[in-house]
Amino acid sequence: MSYLLLKNLHLLGVGASVALFLTRGVCAQLNVSWVQAAWARIASHISHTFLLLMALLMCYQLNMWPLYNSAWLTAKLIGLIVYIVLATLAIKRQRGWAFGLGFLCLMYIAGVAFSKSPWVVM
To answer: Rounded to two decimals, what is the model's pTM?
Structure first.
């Protein structure tokens, strides 16, 4: 599979993941019941799994790995872990501050991806 195809599939996964987070996060703050439905959680897990699979395939193809030989990928990985914690708090516990910080974390991850530097200034 070509790198360009992997990158485009990864970006598709990013779009789906961000759309689901924003939709579920806003609806969770509004206390909409479907947010906790099984299908909503499963759709989110599928989106994230696809996103991570494409990222791993790109890392393999480029031989660039977080925690090993790429500071910006390490920053993205740490940002992803922080984002997961914040998104969980925002959606399961209906914490507005976690939703806002989760969105800022997504912006940081995107900035790192575009700049290829962990030192992104927003």
So the answer is: 0.88
